[in-house]
Specification:
It contains 6 helices and 3 strands; from the N terminus they run αααββαααβ. It has 164 residues and is mainly α. Helix 2 packs across helix 6. The longest helix is centred in the N-terminal third of the chain and has 33 residues. The mean pLDDT is 84.
């Protein structure tokens, strides 16, 4: 009986060690991926329209693409999903960020998912915008430019929380 308890203890300790190493590997890999910088490809300069029909079409594209679903009707941001101890998906308040970006930087971010600092826009479905016609992306940017800043919106960021 003493031998059985001893081997059971060794087995439990070995399993706990393997689980701890797996946790550490997953955590380190996710941190490396989240902090990874990319070289954003050059995007062609688009002519951004200013007429009301083009801006209205830009809003329609934003609704169809799901921008407003995640970022909110006023682009003030929202918590999209919160799974305790795993992930908190936050669509940030882009209404206050928009003035800081040039039109070319916005197009690059929409189409590639890479911010101007080379960091990834986590969980943003940029592949949806990659194949849009240049005119449609220009209309979307035109509509984004009409949105006023909402300083009272969400100011937190997506958090990966691998832990107990």
């Amino acid at each position: 009986m003493k031998n059985l308890l001893k081997w059971t203890g060794f087995s439990v300790a070995a399993l706990a060690s393997v689980a701890l190493m797996a946790y550490a590997c997953i955590y380190l890999a996710s941190e490396r991926e989240v902090g990874r910088a990319f070289a954003a490809p050059a995007v062609t300069k688009l002519v951004i329209p200013t007429d009301a029909p083009a801006i209205a079409e830009g809003e329609r594209i934003a609704r169809l693409a799901g921008c407003l679903h995640c970022h909110g009707d006023s682009l003030q941001g929202s918590v999209v999903d919160d799974i305790p101890h795993l992930v908190r998906l936050v669509a940030p308040n882009i209404s206050v960020m928009l003035p800081e970006y040039s039109d070319e930087e916005l197009v690059t971010m929409l189409r590639t998912g890479v911010k101007r600092d080379g960091k990834s826009v986590l969980f943003m479905p940029s592949e949806m915008y990659r194949h849009l016609a240049d005119e449609d992306v220009a209309r979307l940017v035109a509509w984004l430019r009409t949105m006023p800043a909402r300083p009272s919106g969400v100011h937190e960021h997506t958090q990966l929380q691998i832990g107990i």
